[in-house]
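From the pipeline queue, job 12 of 40. The input is one protein chain; the requested action is below.

Action: predict structure.
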Amino acid sequence: MRLLGNRLLRRAGALDGELTADDKERLLAFLKSYGSLGSDYTYTGTEHRGYSVDPSAAGTPGVQLGDVPSLSEVFASNVGRYFSFEFGYEQAMLMFQPVGGMDAIPMAFAKAIGPDKILTGAAVTDVRNTSDGVEVTYTRNGGTKVVKADYCIATLAPWIFGRGGQGPGRHASGAPLRRGLRRLDRAGGMRAGVRACAKAPADGPAT
């Protein structure tokens, strides 16, 4: 909605009498960035709208939603009822992030574990149990390799690990587990930052 609204505001021209030439240039730069508008100030769709096929592991970039709805269709969806929720003081989207960005967290883990023990750019294609442990098959630089170990800790999201019976966990040990992984799919969800303040009551200590 904000993307189409920015395009409409760009065309309106109602602010011409209130803005200086510099103000107009700054406003246009803001609308173009905030509204993901193209060089001609039109909106043709971005990943912000969502995906018809969600992005997944390596080699699955996802499929973005199709044609952009008209502004009338957006208004008809009543999206405005929820549009301002995230602007509330207690609902800020970005509360904090590590110094250096979110990548700083896995980088710190890698440093602690030892970079020589981590293999990057390897897409796991199969994980299966053996009589004395586990085998993990992966592809890297065009080749396929298999590593064996006593056990495997899979930290992939379950819906990626299963992927409808086609993911790397399709040969997981135990029929109930395999059936469960086949049924899993990505669902909508949210993360919430919670802040709690304890105040001391007038007649006693804080709890």
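Job complete. The helical segments are 2-12, 21-34, 71-76, 80-83, 104-113, 158-162, 175-183.
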